[in-house]
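Sanity check. The docking grid for NAP depends on where the pocket ends up, so I'm generating a full predicted complex first rather than guessing from homology. Inputs follow.
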Amino acid sequence: MIDLATAGTVSLGDRTVKRLGYGAMQLAGPGVFGPPKDRDAALAVLRAAVAEGVDHIDTSDFYGPHVTNQIIRAALHPYPDHLTIVTKVGAKRGADASWNPAFSAEALTQAVHDNLRNLGVDVLDVVNLRLMFDVHGPAEGSIEAPLTVLADLQRRGLIRRIGLSNATRRQVAEGRRITEIVCVQNQYNLAHRADDALIDELAEAGTAYVPFFPLGGFSPLQSSVLSEVAARLGATPMQVALAWLLRRAPNILLIPGTSSLGHLRENLAAAALNLPTEAMAALDGIGAA
Ligand SMILES: NC(=O)c1ccc[n+]([C@@H]2O[C@H](COP(=O)([O-])OP(=O)(O)OC[C@H]3O[C@@H](n4cnc5c(N)ncnc54)[C@H](OP(=O)(O)O)[C@@H]3O)[C@@H](O)[C@H]2O)c1
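Predicted complex below; grid placement will be based on this.
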């Protein structure tokens, strides 16, 4: 079994988690909508993740919707004390599987209660406010109103810690004036490096950065350089992509997603993969190209 602690830990407020966690989005049905084809397989992946030492799961009640959280609860409740579950609010699914902004006080409060009920907890460990000014990437706009709603729910004891997702640098700064921001979850990987400067700023501040689509998401990473480096190291391209992120900055916390036990174990093994400096340099060239 891989010792995930070899890759170190990152703080999420008063919780400390290993840098290799698990993203649960792939456990819903196709298009992150409806139930999975094989519910038992989804339960098995979650139980294996925790058995392998994962202590951080990323989810949302809008995956399914509700389905992913209900599967997490069925697989793992009562949760081990050391497990941190991070969820997100700010979107609502349409009947056509669309992703729609849901930022009113009523919608955010409802989303927090949906998460509490479907996960089966009295308080949510970490809630990310998933910004939707542009669904596909960070875009400017004030976050004061929705973040104030979350901060109020935090004061009422329903949320421990707050983070931001799909956020710009300006929104992170605005958020910090309202409440403590313990993590930022944006799209970032070997080939998509728009957040390089933000990651470095957050690292200096000791704030976790959680890249979503670490393996490319719906378009898995493909690069001849990545494949060549992986072959030289006797690893898989996905392991190298994760190891690159681990080495990229100490505040990066990984949540690769998979519905497969084999891929789960492969991804977790990246914790023990050391990338030589020349491999880092070659891989750095992918994003620059
Ligand atoms: N904040 C946001 O807006 C946002 C958006 C998207 C995702 N997220 C979070 O980020 C997490 C990670 O993102 P993601 O799951 O969308 O994308 P990802 O981790 O980049 O990639 C997942 C895809 O890669 C495949 N995969 C995983 N491991 C593999 C391996 N070792 N070899 C080959 N293929 C592999 C998966 O298929 P298999 O199932 O077949 O393994 C799946 O299709 C999600 O689970 C979710 O929690 C957040």
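Relevant for the grid: The longest strand covers residues 124-130.
Also worth noting: The CA atoms of residues 32 and 63 lie 6 Å apart.
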